Amino acid sequence: MAQIPLNQLAAHLRKGVQPLYVLHGDEPLLQQEAQDAIRAAAREQGYTERSSHTVAGAHFDWSAVLAAGGSLSLFADKQIVEIRIPSGKPGKDGSAALQQIAQSARGNDSTLTIVLLPRLDKATRTGAWFGALESAGASVQIDPVERAQLPQWIAQRLAAQGQRVVAGEEGQRTLQFFADRVEGNLLAAHQEIQKLALLHPEGELTWAQVEAAVLNVARYDVFKLSEAVLSGQVARMQRMLDGLQAEGEAEVLVHWTLAEDIRALKRVKDAMNAGKPLPMALRENRVWGAKERLFERILPQASDAALARLLQSAHVVDGIVKGLKAPDWPTDGWQALQRLALQVCKVAR
């Protein structure tokens, strides 16, 4: 088998379970829910025993994992073996062991194996051990819920517990507010949605009810800040900077993220000026995914002079966050970072 989209996993499991599943991604809530769904389907098919193994360190002993797959208790003829690899790198011994596990999974209806991994890069996904696992069973890539998708995700979760926001503009405003409060922390979003089920009966939820119930549990990360800045979303950028400051994030890391984007914009623009097509310039500068789309929107209308000014500002703020002073700039690092981010937003818009 190959990949199963996460939203099709439930339908897949209704038809029966595979002998092996690989769940890979950095969203703990969604990975846990996928794992629970596979366990529940397996229990219905008689897999009553379960063992769990966490691969820690380069000298992990794989013999216990291999033995678990080949042993059955006196009380059960079917078992689930779970292998968690938090680093996503099983090492040389692990690679061999996983290929052996994949081989023994084929046609094995007494052991169901679940391998749990973080988000994997392209090189790992094309490696021998991952390919062996994927060909022996099914893999589910668990992507994070992006900010633009979050209001719809919240609405679907509310609907699953019989609740909905008011129709029309108020409802959309309520979902956006909810998303702002829980952005970057899906587990907290899930808990806040469950809390609404406890506080209010099934049916319609007003703006006031949601506002009163939902705590400000957003966990901002610097890479999401990059997305907000390159999208020209000033209010979101300011909220995220405030959140990062409140969470004690290092100013130098926030600066590095903003400066990397500015340098990448300048490099790609220089390549375009030298006659390279934009797609090729992006590829050569390793700009992928969501950032690629943002660069495609910004660069055709961004002037060389504007990008040169951003680069100079980034240089100034680098000194400020390290304790230096600069004429006409705030002495406070966070205020300087906000001014730099505003300048990027202006070019992006």
List keywords for this structure.
349 residues, alpha/beta, Rossmann fold, Helicase, Ruva Protein, domain 3, Zinc Finger, Delta Prime, domain 3, 3 domains, two-stranded parallel sheet, 17 helices, 7 strands, 58% helix, 10% strand
What does this structure look like?
The protein has 349 residues and is α/β, with parallel strands linked by helices. It has three domains: 6-142, P-loop containing nucleotide triphosphate hydrolases (Rossmann fold); 147-213, Orthogonal Bundle (Helicase, Ruva Protein, domain 3), CATH 1.10.8; 222-348, Zinc Finger, Delta Prime, domain 3. 58% of the residues lie in helices and 10% in strands. The protein has 17 helices and seven strands. The protein has helices at residues 9-14, 28-44, 63-70, 91-105, 122-125, 128-136, 150-160, 169-182, 186-199, 207-213, 222-230, 234-246, 251-273, 278-284, 289-298, 304-321, 333-348, and strands at 20-25, 49-54, 79-84, 111-117, 138-142, 163-165, 203-205. The strands form two sheets. It has a five-stranded parallel beta sheet with strand order 2-3-4-1-5, with helices on both faces. The protein has a two-stranded parallel sheet with strand order 6-7. Helix 4 (91-105) links the parallel strand 3 and strand 4 (111-117). Helix 4 packs parallel to helix 6, helix 12 (234-246) runs antiparallel to helix 17 (333-348) and helix 13 packs parallel to helix 17. It is globular, with a radius of gyration of 24 Å. It starts with 8 loop residues before the first helix and ends with a helix. The model has no long low-confidence stretch (mean pLDDT 91).
